[in-house]
């Protein structure tokens, strides 16, 4: 009797799931999720959503856009010429607004959306009140809006995130692989995403199934690269 062939990974590309049902709710992000779900009953027309890289801010931003029929754009794409058109949307999401933004354009958008009874969701790695904003009027407005934070992940969420990240790449991993990875990895969303990508890449390059042995090699290489950087 011939044995069943092993699962060999193929690179079909992957698309992260950004739907509401794909979002993993846990203690560290429950408050932020509740804020997004509470729309349009926010105490203000604007909300700041902040947390570390890869923590799920973009996922919540997409959920909000879907619910509000809004539009999402990176902060670097915001220009003053676009503001009148953007302000006609029910809601606007400006992502990574603390990483460089046209302050005059954001100030104009802030004012027009309020006049039009629209909504504004701003995401960043820190609370808006701590952003390095030179324009005094904009800094004042950002300091006054309510905020929702996403904290570093707990073990249960981190494990669920690993499962989702592998699933987004159409990859199945056994509980033994997850049990090996979880206590040895950096405790962050960004690290989880980078590790899954590295394991996927190694599996494709070596045409191997994902196993504890493969995860061990990838994590050792990743750790060595970090120490040498």
TrEMBL record:
Cross-referenced SUPFAM superfamilies: P-loop containing nucleoside triphosphate hydrolases
GO MF term set: DNA replication origin binding
Biological process terms in GO annotation: DNA replication initiation
Domain of life according to the entry: Bacteria
Entry's Gene Ontology cellular component terms: plasma membrane
Organism expressing this protein natively: Telmatospirillum siberiense
Transmembrane segments: none
Protein name according to UniProt: DNA replication protein
